[in-house]
Amino acid sequence: MQRVSDLLKSKAKEVWSISPKSTVFDALKIMDEKEIGALMVMDKKDNVVGIITERDYARKVILKGKSSSKTLVEEIMTPSEKMYTVKSDTPVEDCMVLITGKRIRHVPVFDGDQFVGLISIGDVVKSTISQKDILIEHLSNYISGKY
Question: CA angle, corner 55, sides to 51 and 59, nearest 5?
Answer without folding.
Answer: 110
